[in-house]
Amino acid sequence: MFKAILINKDDQGYRAELGEVEESSLPEGDVRVKVLYSTLNYKDGLAITGKSPVVRSFPMVPGIDFAGEVIESSSPDFKAGDMVLLNGWGVGEGHWGGLAQQARVKAEWLIPLPKGFTAKQALAIGTAGYTAMLCVMALQKHDLKPSDGEVLVTGAAGGVGSFAVALLSKLGFTVVASTGRMAEADYLKKLGAAEVIDRNTLSEPGKPLAKERWAAVLDSVGSHTLANACAQTKSNGAVAACGLAQGMDFPSSVAPFILRGVTLYGVNSVTVPRTKRIAAYEQLSKLVDLKTLDEISHEITLEESLKYAQELMAGNVRGRLIVDVNR
Fold first, then answer.
1. Which of 266, 283, 314 is where one domain is finished?
2. What's the pLDDT at 296?
């Protein structure tokens, strides 16, 4: 038996609770892992609270990422004792995820624990930091330079946003952080933001084209915020979009793209090939100050993830929540 957060939907309604699970109940997979750490991400908050139908089968163990030690493996890629990391691949949605003391998954979903990081540090980065890095890599692909001008980060006090601010600042960019929690301005400036602006300046309906300001944008919010960010991006600039905290809609026009040559990069962290995942973590190992992880992350217990999921949905969580599933 092992502990897990279990989500059920039946005649009694939709509910998530801490429970005991038989090892034999684990889904199919060729690698069984003793989970050491998972995290609580926006998608996990949606799953646990039921605010969006992200869970595709029941019962479900949420948790879209985890790090741990291989217990047994029928894959030649991993053996017992190997330390591994997983981000995405639909775990916590269609396949049992990391908010449990054990997981069984496909070997192709795993990568070796990145060099230079402990399991806890890798999960302090987690899917949020890894996604932020993929967004930065998209902007790097666009050949942007710090001299091109300011880079906007939306949803800056969240997990992806916090890492985006820190990574872009480390690369020498002038970062402007947009947040709905102006009380977090000092935190964001400590991460490297040169300026902090209120999200209200971006979150309302705007013009198809606005005054040019941003050389690039890293957006985790979507909806009007993304539309306004695109409308304010300089000619031949780039926008990397990876989230929908404000909404899934995109109330924009083609104007920024055909009149200013703005490029919109969609960043999907879920099904990225293993080689690109490893490349992202190689960059993270060079850019992430381990002391910064303490600023960005906060550790909670497995049971506490139920309470913090509600706080996450209410927009009351700063940075990253690491879940010690064995505590």
1. 266
2. 87
- Domain range for 66: 2-113+293-324
**165 and 248 share one domain:** yes
In a domain, 158, yes or no: yes
Q: Work out the pLDDT band at 12, boundaries 50, 70, 90.
A: confident
Per-residue DSSP letters for 13-54? Answer: EEEEEEEEE-GGGSPP-SEEEEEEEEE--HHHHHHHHTSS--
Is the bond preceding residue 59 a cis peptide, omega within 30 degrees? yes
Length of the chain: 327
Per-residue pLDDT for 295 more than 90?
A: no
The one-letter code for the residue type at 96 is: W
Take residue 173 and report the two structure tokens written for it. 């960019």
CA–CA dist 100, 11 (Å, integer): 25
Q: Could you read off the pLDDT of 223-258 as tens digits, one per residue?
A: 999 999 999 999 999 999 999 999 999 999 999 999
Reduced to 3 states (helix: H, G, I; strand: E, B; else coil), residue 295 is: helix
CATH number of the structural domain spanning residue 83: 3.90.180.10
Tell me the average pLDDT across 173-197: 96
| Secondary structure class of 281 (helix, strand, coil) | helix
User: Which ranges in the chain belong to alpha helices (H)?
Assistant: 42-49, 119-141, 159-170, 185-191, 200-203, 223-231, 255-259, 274-287, 290-296, 304-313
Q: How many C-beta atoms lie closer than 10 Å to residue 17's C-beta?
A: 12
Contact 296, 123 (CB under 8 A): no
pTM: 0.90
Whether residue 261 lies inside any domain: the answer is yes
